[in-house]
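Example record

One chain of 286 residues, shown exactly as stored in the release files.
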Amino acid sequence: MTQLFRSLIFVPGNNSRFLEKAKNLQADIICFDLEDSVPDKDKKQARKLIKNALKSRSEYTSSIFVRTNSPISGKIPDDLKEIVQKGIDGIVIPKVNNVKELKQIEKNLQSLEKTRKLKPTKIVPSIESTEGVVNTYSIASHSKRVCAVVFGVFDLLNDLGIEYTKDPEGAKYSRAKIPVDAKAAGVASIDAIWQDLKDFKGLEKDCKAGRSLGFTGKSLIHPDQISVTHKIFYPTKSEIQWAEKVCKTYLESAKKGKGATTVEGKMIDEVHFKQAEAILKITKNN
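Predicted structure tokens for this chain:
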């Protein structure tokens, strides 16, 4: 499936009704959650519910990711054992501090994928600590599996000993650094959630601020936030022009029997073509 990163919405994995309703959500990524929204006593049941939901993958219109528990929790092996199967597009890993944590997770993934004959699972590390912020570029550039990083503002502020506000001064450096490091690593960056579900003007302002910093999209906690987010993270004129060039050049190359080509001196393959197609599809539907 073609991957866009304008919106990533978290859906509690222990709520079967929410998992069912997610089939109709128009977010770019639906992320079934096993972490913060699921109490410890419900983790085992949530894994089973998500496993069953993935069996109905064709009924979901968006990409499907699953947020595991954190590396420090020790629960990731049990998470992966249940959720790594046909139908999953990727995993979001919360509270990633360094590359060492990713390496261990990749080992688990490789073993499961080999046994179950699956394609490599994409990884989206979530940056939520001072150590993670310092290591963002090395985390983002660690592996071809890493397709994006997420900014987790609440745990970062807790790490810094700062109380949350809607525009926390103490998070500004981290919020600005993460998309820069992600871009340098060649991956997308997804901004932190907006917690106030009734403040849509605040959400719109926050989306604009995130986009101005270079974020590709935003993480969400309610379906009502999707339309506002997509309005702000609509493709730019230069992105649309790039997509048009990629589609035209790639299709011409494909007619000649070539699988890859170049656009403005950069290598373009099927992945880039599908990304460009998705961008143009957005513009045609609006």
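Notes: Residues 7-234 form a domain with the TIM Barrel fold (CATH 3.20.20.60).
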